[in-house]
Sequence to fold (265 residues):
Amino acid sequence: MTDRAALEAHLKYYTELGVNGVSRDPAWRERQASDPPESVATATVEVSELPASTEAVAPMTGVASVEGPAESTGDPAADLVALRDYIGDCTRCKLHQQGRKQVVFGVGNPNADLMFVGEAPGADEDQQGEPFVGRAGQLLTKIIEAIGLNRSDVYIANVIKCRPPANRNPEPDEVATCEPFLFRQIDTIRPKVIVALGTFAAHALLKIDTPISRIRGRVHEFRGGAKLIPTFHPSFLLRNQQNRAMYRDVWEDMKKARAILDAPN
Ligand code: URA
Fold:
C-alpha cells in the first residue's frame, strides 16, 4: 500500500466510524480517548503513523487438534465443502439442543490471504447462517474495507459454529468439540494472516490465557506459517464507542495485517 492509499484508507475508516478529524496536539489526543465521536474536531492527520511495519513475532505455544475428512483434494474450495458436509447438522455438543437454528460454518474466499476469527454466531448469524452479519459484522466489514479489501476477499469464521443460548460465553467442552473444525479450516485456507477478534478467539488460537491487553499490539506466530494478530472484537468496540483509543488500536493492528499482506513472500 502506498502512503497515499494508506492515508485514504485511514480517513475512510475513521469517517465511517463517526470520527471527522484528528490533531497532532497531544492534549487533543488525550481528550479523544474519553470524548464521544460527535465531539471530535476537524484537524490534520498524523501521516507519520502510516504505514506500520511488522514487529517481533511471538511464537505460538500448545498444539491444537484438527478434525475433518481424512483426504484432502488439494483444492481449498472443494475441501471446505467437504468439511462442511462432514460437520453436517452437528449434534456433537449440547448446543444443538439449546435453541440454535443452524451450523454457521464460515464464509469468504477459500484462497484468502487474510482470515478473521470471531467467537461464536449471534442471533443474526444463526438466522442467516453466515458469520458476522449483525451490527458487529457491519463494523467488521468497514474495518476490512478500510484496508482496501472486500468481505469477499477474506475468509471469516468463528471458533464455535453454533450460537450459544442468550449469547453466553462458549463452554470448554463446546470449544474442545468445535475448534478442531476451525483448525481444519485454517489448514485448508492457509492464510498469510489471521486476525483474532477478541480475547476468546485469541486464546483459542494461541492456546494461552494471557490478557488481550498483553497479547495485542504484537504479531504472533501461528502453527508454522500464518502470522496471528489479536485485536479487539467489533462488539467490544461497539460497546465502547466513546473510547477512541481502542479504535486507533484496531487501526494499528489492521495496518500490521496489511503490511504483512503487502510484503513480498
Ligand atoms: N460475534 C462473533 O464472534 N461472531 C459472529 O459471527 C458474530 C458476532
Summary: The radius of gyration is 19 Å. The first strand starts at residue 57 and ends at 58.
